[in-house]
Design brief:
mainly alpha
């Protein structure tokens, strides 16, 4: 299984590299290199902005914990988030590996129930904020820019789907419908028909308890939910600022609305292509095509994505250094 995962990661890297080469050759390496080099010391500003984004999500995660659990402190949670991000960027597993890694790094500092429930609430709330961010960006795209009929139709369908997901999640949380528990129970019954009944009773009980804690957070801690939502809003605002600043640094005088649309596209790429290590190739392709649609040209989008790769690489290295110096029991 490990060798298969490594092979998949290698193949995804090859595909991403091929896509990257195609777009760079199509756009023109000399022009892209000139734009990327123009970032200069502005890259430090971008790193600072991205650092604020990491702080925002760390604070959001801390707020999802109880008052007693927050005594773990900002530092360990911040470190766990960076290590998790680094792990997700390097493999095809993406969040499937990143989220358990965050939980593992806090081992010995919080109970397993506290770690899992608080991170589940933070991640779920973040995903809902991403849905709203993407929907708003797509609406801005079709309302402000001249786009093809096909893109307009697809955008409307995606916006409708995202709003349905958000609305459904709100109703489930409000009515406390045990969707996850029911699905787990159905799965346990199916396993029972093939002679595996009872093997996962403990996991099913843990799922029921986790779902209860998630529902309790939204029902009993509205003030904390608002604070978490505000931290996520700051995360997205900083993303738009980073995109806008990057384009300005490399010589593209664009509007904040265009930067907002490009950042929304980046959220789509991060979610849809989380299995591609570092979003290699797909980020450049998606950003390049959208930048062209916005009238900025493919060069702007590809250059933006490459500079974003530099920022991701910096924090990935930081995450790997943190992991290398973490305690041995945090690796297990």
């Amino acid at each position: 299984m490990k060798h298969r995962s490594q092979l998949t990661t290698f193949l995804m890297l090859l595909v991403g590299m091929a896509l990257l080469v195609v777009f760079i050759r199509k756009t023109g390496w000399d022009e892209i290199a000139r734009r990327v080099e123009a970032i200069g010391t502005g890259f430090v500003v971008l790193l600072a902005i991205s650092g604020v984004r990491i702080v925002a999500r760390t604070r959001a995660w801390l707020r999802c914990m109880s008052d007693e659990e927050r005594k773990v402190g900002f530092g360990p949670v911040w470190r766990a988030r960076i290590i998790g991000d680094a792990t997700g960027h390097l493999t095809t597993s993406g969040p499937i590996l990143a989220e358990p890694m965050r939980i593992r790094i806090l081992r010995g500092k919080l109970s397993l129930t506290s770690r899992v429930s608080s991170l589940t609430v933070e991640t779920l709330t973040y995903l809902m904020s991403c849905c709203l961010m993407i929907a708003a960006a797509l609406l801005a795209l079709i309302a402000t820019f001249a786009v093809s009929w096909n893109l307009r139709a697809v955008s409307i369908m995606v916006v409708t789907l995202l709003l349905l997901v958000v609305a459904s999640t709100i109703v489930i949380a409000w009515r406390r419908w045990p969707v996850a528990s029911d699905l787990g129970l159905i799965g346990a019954k199916l396993l029972g028909t093939i002679g595996l009944g009872g093997k996962f009773d403990r996991q099913l009980l843990q799922l029921v308890e986790l779902e209860k804690r998630v529902f309790n957070f939204y029902a009993e801690r509205p003030r904390d939910f608002i604070v978490v939502a505000l931290w996520h809003a700051l995360f997205h605002v900083c993303g738009v600022v980073e995109t806008y600043a990057t384009l300005q640094f490399i010589g593209f005088d664009t509007s904040p609305l265009a930067a907002f649309t490009l950042e929304g596209a980046n959220r789509v790429i991060n979610v849809a292509f989380s299995f591609v290590p570092g979003r290699l190739g797909v980020d450049e392709a998606g950003s390049g095509l959208l930048a062209q649609t916005l009238g900025l040209g493919t060069t702007a989008g590809v250059s933006l994505a490459l500079i974003r790769k530099g920022r991701v690489l910096f924090w990935t290295i930081v995450g790997l250094i943190f992991f290398a110096f973490s305690k041995p029991d945090e690796h297990n």
